[in-house]
Amino acid sequence: MNHLSDPVLMRQDAVSIFQAGISAADPYQAVKRYLTPELLGDYTKVYLIAFGKAACAMAQAAQEIIPADRLAGKGIAVTNYENVTDIDNVDVIGAAHPLPDASGLKATQMIAGRIGNAKENELVLALISGGGSALIPYPSGRITLQDKIVSTDLLLACGATINQINCVRKHLSQLKGGGLARIAAPAHLHALILSDVLGDDLSSIASGPTVADNTTYADAIDIFKTKGVWEQVPNNVRQHLEQGMLGNIAETPKPGDDVFKNTGHTLIGSNSISVNAMLQAAKNLGYDRGLYSDCLNGEARNEAEKMIIHAKALTLNKPIALLAGGETTVTLKGNGRGGRNQEMALAFAIAAEQHDLSNNWVFLSGGTDGRDGPTDAAGGMVDQQTLKRMKQAGVNPIELLENNDSYTALKSSNDLVITGATGTNVADLQILLIRPEPKTQQNETRMPKVGNAD
Q1: Domain with CATH 3.40.1480.10 in the chain
Q2: Taking the mean position of all CA atoms in its chain, how far away is CA 449?
Q3: At residue 99, does pLDDT exceed 90?
Q4: Do 366 and 420 contact (CB within 8 A), yes or no?
Q5: To the nearest whole percent, how much of the chain has pLDDT over 70?
Q6: 20 to 30 A from 287, CA-CA: which of 127, 254, 331, 447?
Q7: So what's the architecture of 27-138+173-215+252-269 in CATH?
Q8: pLDDT tens digits, 317-335
Q9: Which helix (H) or strand (E) holds 33?
Q10: How far apart are CA 213 and CA 227, in angstroms?
Q11: How many whole angstroms separate alpha carbon 326 and alpha carbon 427?
Q12: What's 3-23+272-436's CATH class?
């Protein structure tokens, strides 16, 4: 049997292609490539700070490059608990994601206190990666950490986009939306950035702590109102945003502000780089390749159906890999567990049956950080037998989808993809492998082990 025609090996290929995308976003190697002697210049001291899901790997690389006698004390790295590792001469602090916690607040206060002492002939080197928004909470005014948690939770649950969530975060924080640059001035500031945002908008990555912000307090209020949750927003947050809109609280730094005159940035990794790596991996495995989308967004279940409709319209003469990168959303209506990638995978399996996607196929959707929503899974991988396995396990996939309980559904069919924390984050990747073989030639086969939960 040709290796591309074996459903088990197709699943293994999907995992290999996914791993190629993750490897292309390796934060340690990216910092090694871009942190040059020219960038370090002749500054008398370098303040090393890192935050995000890739903070440890990035800080490790940086401290190996920066001469010890030029470091302004120990560096600070703030990352999610799963990615915490010890680094010489760096204080590593674990914090919560996607909802902030007290540990993240304490770490952010340390960062602000450290870089607030930086002088004009010194460099603040900021290593920024996805997840930074939640990991470095620094509430403004009378806003409490709990106020920020409630506000973030409301936005996550109502299907707000990452840009909408970041707009609000910038206007509730002393650090985001250019706040870090404001604190670091008059020192020089350079950020090495690993992007988890589609289009690589620097003002959106970790809510843009080192770049100018074009959004306003009025925009933040409008987001809450448009999503229909303004009345549920904590009083301190509502009052802060309203006072900001009235001009009684300073806006975030805008383009042209003097705080940015000594600020620079280098983009060292992104979702598009990972998608290109997947395209090459698929070619190496013998698939015809097709870029489905390099900016996939929208409601996860709707995007799954659109991808199926696109696949059905193709004329297939040989196995093909349709690849995508992006970040979908989920509007919560139930109380189940799962993330956007698991929901997309479950919705794909259901819609594939409804639309009679007849060719043999495997679909994987996963987060490059290894964590999809509040679960231990990176995402899900489904095939033509997924719904059958779920029903044999006694679960109703449609009911579970409606309850946003994709984790339970995929676990029952052994279709969770579990990688563990990857130490990087460049949003999500999707892989659809299809081979032009009639259903009648399919054979039942054992499932490969892809790291499922016990």
Answers
A1: 3-23+272-436
A2: 25
A3: no
A4: no
A5: 95
A6: 447
A7: 3-Layer(aba) Sandwich (3.40)
A8: 899 999 999 999 999 999 9
A9: helix 27-34
A10: 22
A11: 6
A12: alpha beta
